[in-house]
Every structure is written in C-alpha cells, then in structure tokens.
Amino acid sequence: MKINEPSRIGGVNPYHKQQDGKLTGAGKEKAKLKDQLQISPEAKELQELQAASQKNAADPARLAKVEELKQQVSTGTYRVDSGKIAEKLLPYLK
Fold first, then answer.
1. Any idea what DSSP says for residue 13?
2. Per-residue pLDDT tens for 43-70?
C-alpha cells in the first residue's frame, strides 16, 4: 500500500483554527484563572464533628466500654433494657 502526500493529512483540521481563536482577547484572561474550592459552613461543621468523634473514639475508657459490649454481644450475655428504649422513643412518637 502506498500513501501519497502524508503531510496533507495534518493540513485538514477544522478545529485547529477555532482553538487558536479562543485564546485571543478575553480567552487569555480565562486561561490565567486558577481553580478555586469553597467549602460550605455546613461541610466545615461536619468536619469538626467528625474530628471530635475521632477524638472520642481514641479515649481509653470508651475503648474499654466498647470492647466490653462486644464481648457481651458475642457471648450472648448482653441484655437490652426495654424500659430505657421506650423512654427514649416516647417523645418521638408524640
């Protein structure tokens, strides 16, 4: 197979001229703009809450309590006080 005039392929690019035109005038100013990130106050609050919960998770007393509860659940000795659950649910049901 013989290819004649391989340089002719690069000469036909209709998009090349459009791209050059976009970089003139106001397009140059847009090209110089940098990306920006804005974090909403709600997202910042969530980050603070997450950081606080991670601090609580690292508390040795809390870790001991969690381990104790895990052991009770795994052995089947964990009992739920239905009265306490009912007291907490009652305000939501009213």
1. -
2. 999 999 988 887 777 778 888 998 999 9
Report DSSP letters for 29-44, one per residue: HHHH--------HHHH
Give dist(CA 68, CA 61) in Å, integer. 11
Phi, psi torsion values for 58, nearest 5 degrees: -85, -5
Does the predicted TM-score (pTM) go above 0.85?
A: no
Query: Looking at this protein, which amino acid is placed at residue 67?
Result: E
72 contacts 78 by C-beta, under 8 angstroms = yes
d(CA 94, CA 74): 35
Look up residue 20 and give its two tokens.
């050059």
CA–centroid distance for 49 within its chain: 15
